[in-house]
Amino acid sequence: MAAIRKLKTYKPTIFKADGSVYNQDSADTAVAFINCLKHTKGEWYGQSFELIDWQEQIIRDLFGVIKPNGYRQFNTAYIEIAKKQGKSELAAAVALLLTCGDFEHGGEVYGCASDRQQASIVFDVAVEMVEQCPALKARIKPVLSQKRLVYKPLGSFYQVLSAEAYTKHGLNVHGVVFDELHAQPNRQLFDVMTHGSGDARKQPLYFLITTAGNDQHSICYEVHQKSKDILEGRKVDPTFYPVIYGADEADDWTDPKVWAKANPSMGITVDIEKIQIACENAKQNPAEENLFRQLRLNQWVKQSVRWMPMEKWDKCSFAVDPDSFVGRQCYGGLDLSSTTDITAFVLVFPPEYEDDKYIILPHFWIPEDNLDLRVRRDHVPYDIWEKQGFLKTTEGNVVHYGYIENFIEELSLKYNIREIAFDRWGAVQMVQNLEGLGLTVVPFGQGFKDMSPPTKELMKLTLEEKIAHGGHPVLRWMMDNIFIRTDPAGNIKPDKEKSTEKIDGAVATIMALDRAIRRGGTNNSVYDNRGLIVF
Prior knowledge:
There is one protein chain. It is elongated and about 80 Å long. It has 3 domains: 73-245, P-loop containing nucleotide triphosphate hydrolases (Rossmann fold), CATH 3.40.50; 254-301, no CATH class; 310-530, Nucleotidyltransferase, domain 5 (2-Layer Sandwich), CATH 3.30.420. It contains 19 helices and 20 strands. By secondary structure, the protein is of the alpha/beta class.
């Protein structure tokens, strides 16, 4: 393991206000408190928390720069940095320092995030730090059911809060640790926790720590812009402490020198080899480039990005003969959409031998009466696809679900359909009818948790040319329409709102592929054997 370096030279921040001084003793006390804590994860578990250079600079600035009245100058710190730099450990240490080492009687310190689960990440690290420190363990009472740590000598506490902002008025805040500010769905919780909540305290501290986001209308981007304005001299706020480690927009994102700008812990908490692997994946995939820039280089990126490289998709146009798969095991994905729109049912046949491919066999339906109107309105050749047999119509101006149920029943007599995955929305009656036909139908969530693994897997199989789709034009059109949404953890899913046109067939393919991968030929999941694909 690489040795954790210590800050050899320290220069107080350039944002010192008139009359403020750097108090060595105050800074040393804060650093010494944190150094008494221990790491809680991985290979460093149980080792002393010796601050890395960038961390120690922040702690010395925040706790060592003192106003003439003896209180801290900075009451808001905004730390924006790439993932895997030790954010959670630093945030937990700051939370404990404010709770136990700030000598604030009745101090209220809160951990906030986009939801209670995210806020609990830093809290759980703090709990483990207390467990490993006998002096704190003897003085802190944990109330884990409330996600609260009570420091008995001062009557102060550190507690997790979730995003229900309307319940948080009236708090007397001494400290707030705001984790992953970029994931906040709105500004309510931020405003409640930072506007007036600490007025009764002499030196409250709002510690905001985050990775760059993708919503430039968010509260985090607003604070990001304020930080940049202060760093670049366009604004002055002596109470606000900004730190941004990130690549500039014009930087070459493939250059390791640029990686170092956003990863001050590179070689310590994150291996350069892992960044190299992520970079290589990003070079091949526009969606992964977006994730790499956001999570690894701490750049603000667009929320959605066109996903499928169509030249790679077209290389998988291997011939598909539906009659050659009679009796073969397969898995279905059903996306009903609305009754006036396209309905998609896709079968995926898992490989039967080592060099075999995943076979994709799609089917699409549209209301017959809407066909000509949609061709004129959408400028999409539905009529040509219908004549070519790639798109089916049902009588009337809405999709006739009974016709589709009969069609799926006929397919089940031809192929061994093991399971059909479906989007829960709007599919209750059809699901009951399909189950009545003896088919196994399983609900499939449309959130990140369920969609991310097979979406990433579809890209991997496409790049490796391990799928065969026969060049189906409707499915190709839908694949080209896909835009991808990402969450703070790097999970992805198709974004129906941002996608340029219909993507129902792509979503059905992803659902069917998931079942084929998890169940294909065995009772075990491929994900269990080799883990998820992580870019």
